Amino acid sequence: MIKYIYFLLGLTLFLSSCKIHYISKPFNDNESPSAPDYAHEKYWAVLPNKIPNQLQQFINLDSIKETADIFYVYPTLFKDSKNSAWNADVNNDNFNKEILDQPIHYQASVWADLGRLYAPYYRQSHYRIYIKPYTNQSGSSYELAYSDVKNAFEFYLKHYNKGRPIIIAAHSQGSAHSKRLLKEFFDGKPLQKQLVAAYIPGIKVMKTDFNTLKPMTSPDEIGGYLVWNSYKKGKKPKNFETWFKGGVTSNPITWNTEKQVAIQFHKGTLYTNDKIYPQSIRVEVTDGLLWVSVPKVPKRFFLRFISDYHFGDINLYWEDIRINAQQRIDAFWKQKSKSENL
Which residues contact 32 (CB under 8 A, 6 or more apart)? Predict the structure, then answer.
């Protein structure tokens, strides 16, 4: 039941946000929580030698693959309306457990058995940063959150990567920070040669946002990014014009340029009972949105009342993403082998 409550909370967050009053005050850097030191394992939710219980059912602990690294940045969970802080405290054990129980379990698990997984805790911005008039008080909150993600990534590159191919995986706020990572570290940079793929759903990305990084349009393409925003078929959010219109929309089932995908091609949703439900949704790619049918899962009756499927940008296509990520890893090594033999 607790898992299901979280599920519905994620579903209704955007819809209800305008009705919630948040205790707030202007951002003050002197009141920000202390910065994480990524040399200490406590500031990582996941490392190859630190696999939490929430992931163990998805991974073979006796044989962690070395064929790729996955750097995962989780979405916004810091949403307590009575907490006036602008950034989450990485030393809050209760909040860190939420991260493990929710996005690590339902999202990062996609990539858990595909390579070496890295997921840093970071001082993410409070959810109200997206809501007017609170946005005007946010100051440097978002920059502070990104600085943690950047520092974690730089530490990862220096101490952990050792030249392996990289998958960037994220959602929502995590995708926004990952988009900046891609721009600063990969776009037209030498590190782009190590990029298998970037899965960054839950944000708007324009083709012009990058110089050399491109949206990928075939299932075994490498070196680019994939992005989508899930919404109920036939519906559009109120903020469509500013937040979604014109944005790149990848197809997370066929991974090509098909606009409509029938239900039989869907490989599987990871639901709150930890079961995979294949052939449960059909999708349609439209301007800036991925229209999704009501998933054929238990208690689907409640989903009929929801339009915003942002909550499911990853777990709706859990098996599809997992299979595709392995495809792209294989394609990366095949291409590398071919170039070395020339």
Answer: 86, 87, 123, 144
